[in-house]
Amino acid sequence: MVPLSWYLIFAALLFSIGMFGVLSRRNAVAILLGIELMLNSVNINLAAFWRYGDVTQMAGQVFAIIVFAVAAAEVAVGLALVISVYRRRNTVIADDINMMKW
Amino acid sequence: MTGEQIIFLVVAFFTLGSGFMVVTTRNLVHAAFWLVSTLFGVAVVFALLNASFLAVVQVVVYIGAIAILFIFAVMLTRKDMRDQGPQMNPGWWFGALISVLVFLGLVFLLQGWSGLSTTASAMPSDFDAISELGNVLVSPDAYVLPFEVASVLLVAALIGAVYVAFNRK
Amino acid sequence: MSFWNDPLKVAADWLMGIFTGWGMPGIAAQILIGFLGILFLLSLLMVLDIFLVWVERKVVSRFQDRIGPNRVGPFGLIQPFADIIKLLIKEDITPDGADKVVYNLAPLLSMMSVLILWAVMPLAPRMIGVDLNIGALYIIAAGAIGTLSIIMAGWASNNKYALIGAFRQVAVMVAFEIPMLTMLLIPTIFAGSMGFNAITEAQDVWFVWLAPLAALIFLIAAIAELGRAPFDMAEGESELVAGYNTEYSGMKFGMFYAGELLHAFTFGGFWAILFFGGYRFFGLEQVSAFLAVAVILFKAFIGYWIIMWVRYTLLRIRIDHMLGFNWKFLTPLGFVLLMVVALLNALLAGTPAWLYVAAMFLSNVILGLIALEIARSYSRKEREKVEGVRQVVEARH
Questions:
Q1: How does pLDDT run across C28-70, given as a tens digit for each residue?
Q2: What residues does C283 pair with on adjacent strands?
């Protein structure tokens, strides 16, 4: 039987990898890819806590589903923003989108 | 080491390797395809956790919709199909440092927790997790409110995305 | 006698006896038997696929007033083998600038997305790969893999026709997934389960009598999902060469082609399972498992034949009309139908069966007529607009 710690450490590693992507990538789409990895690691944690806790309490699965919905919404709006920015400024490099900075 | 542990390790290494490729590969379309394989790995992890509904929804929503959206977005936002220039920030090592520190911090926190080495009890044989999940999602004394709020959020995101990405000539 | 009722279990027990007789541990023998079962099913499917090539070519030639393949073997039955040999000995070209790994992976994924569908297909009362209790969602998940394979093929070919074809096909597939999923929920409401075995068992009355409109919408969505005419904009020969598989040659093209045929047959089968009682036919399935398999294959062939009939009769639809048809007509209609069915199902609980069936059938027919009337008035308005423009143009000349 796999102990809970394996799942948690696995999720933590995936979270760190996603975080590295968010912090280090230049392309805005790649940053969103990193965010997806982080959301997935959260989902693994939720499902693992559901399985290793009281199985009849569905809170873990329910919130994993809500994370799915939030992730879909986030991707739709995020990518729409990226495409809109690309149309106006002709770039998707996060560093170059600095109109609001001075 | 039992068979289940071996399967978990194989899937975990596959998922983490693909995840690593997502954040490091230079070609963005490849990054999106690696994301797909990471999501597959996570779906298998859900299946290992007996959360079969989550596993299938992971494939439907993440691979069928989100990954496809990413691939479209990558293809729509480039001047040509080659990737030029560095894909990383000049300060990428700082990001790497922070992520390693976050990971170490998480492991440190986990170590002090008593419930860490819990093993799962067997699934009750007469317990149907999927119908229970369906019941709690729409039952007023459980999670109907978060469920409805999530649906409102999805509609808002749909309208917002169409409005933002619409090409006003 | 029991072999005729449950051949899989008898065969598995027999193999188990042999393997454990060789001194193999029980768990390993079980895994090996599972693999053998998968291999057996897949080989049968591939043989069926070869046969489907012949069926498709014969049927299309009859629709087009031709005879079709008739030279190789009786009725041209050996023709598909000749086709396969031709495909195998063709030069296998990978275009310059293609992304090799993705390019070679795409046909495999395309074939896989079809084959994994058969894991949840109930062939006889006790003959089903896995009786998943989320079977309906599983179909959509397999479709997601098919979508992925198409975008991989289109992008990795490094060819603009392939990419445009893939974009169109993926847009259509993602869009038509929504009415399809909605229609999958209607048998789920009737049966109270998403598992296909439970759905088949629940059909004392075929679900097509309960929800004829749902069966029709599911068929339309399935045809669009398959990318067959009238929804085969992605392969519009006159403008896109051959769509996403333009650059593929030899057996890689063959895998796309065979996958498409088997996919059509598989959806014929799922249409039969969801709405036409699956393997059930007046108690025939209780006599022998082989008869049950014959019944479902026959029903699947009828579904496949209807898909072919539509394909070779109707014209190709323009891409914006296709997506507009989905988003503005099929999806709202599907949602309304789902709500009506769910509401009636709740209201009519406990009423006699004939009332339930009659109310469901009538509500479906009325809803379908209302939807048709709305579509007709819309198209009349559109036609007036177009003809008004034409009159203005003619008046100027």
A1: 778 888 888 888 888 888 888 888 888 888 888 888 888 888 8
A2: none
Q: Do C133 and B75 touch (CB under 8 A)?
A: no
Residue C89 has pLDDT above 80, yes or no: yes
Tell me how close the Cα of A99 comes to any Cα of chain B, in angstroms: 18
Choose from B59, B103, B154 for mutation: most chain A CBs within 10 A.
Answer: B103
pLDDT of B83: 59
Query: Phi/psi at B152 (nearest 5 deg)?
Result: -65, -40
Record: contact B71-C167, CB cut-off 8 A: no
| pTM for the structure as a whole | 0.87
pLDDT value, residue C295: 86
Of B31, B62, B95, the CB nearest to A23: B95
Whether residue B169 has pLDDT greater than 70? no
SS3 for chain C is CHHHHCHHHHHHHHHHHHHHHCCCCHHHHHHHHHHHHHHHHHHHHHHHHHHHHHHHHHHHHHHCCCCCCCCCCHHHCCHHHHHHHHHHHCCCCCCCCCCHHHHHHHHHHHHHHHHHHHHHCCCECCECCCCCCCHHHHHHHHHHHHHHHHHHHHHHCCCHHHHHHHHHHHHHHHHHHHHHHHHHHHHHHHHCCCCHHHHHHCCCCCHHHHCHHHHHHHHHHHHHHHCCCCCCHHHCHHHHCCHHHCCCCHHHHHHHHHHHHHHHHHHHHHHHHHHCCCCCCCCHHHHCHHHHHHHHHHHHHHHHHHHHHHHHHCCCCCHHHHHHHHHHHHHHHHHHHHHHHHHHHHHCCCCCHHHHHHHHHHHHHHHHHHHHHHHHHHHHHHHHHHHHHHHHHHHHC
pLDDT score recorded for residue B153? 92
pLDDT of B85 over the 70 cut: no
Contact B132 A19 (CB under 8 A): no
Nearest to C147 among B29, B68, B75 (CB): B68
Q: What are the tens digits of pLDDT across the range C147-190?
A: 888 888 888 888 888 888 888 888 888 888 889 989 988 988 88
Residue contact B52–C140, C-beta within 8 A:
no
State the angle between helix axes of B68-76 and C135-156 in degrees (0 to 180), rounded to the nearest 10: 20
Residues of B in contact with C163 (CB under 8 A): 75
ipTM of the complex: 0.86
Name residues 65-94 of chain A within 8 A of B (Cβ).
65-66, 68-77, 79-84, 86-87, 90, 92
Q: pLDDT tens, C308-343?
A: 888 888 888 888 888 888 888 889 999 999 999 888
Tokens 């893999």 belong to C145
Shortest Cα distance, chain C CAs vs residue B155, angstroms: 15
Dihedral, A73, A79, A84, A86 alpha carbons, nearest 10: 170
pLDDT beyond 80 at B77 = no
| C150: closest chain B residue by CA | B68
Q: Which chains touch C (3 or more CB pairs under 8 A)?
A: B
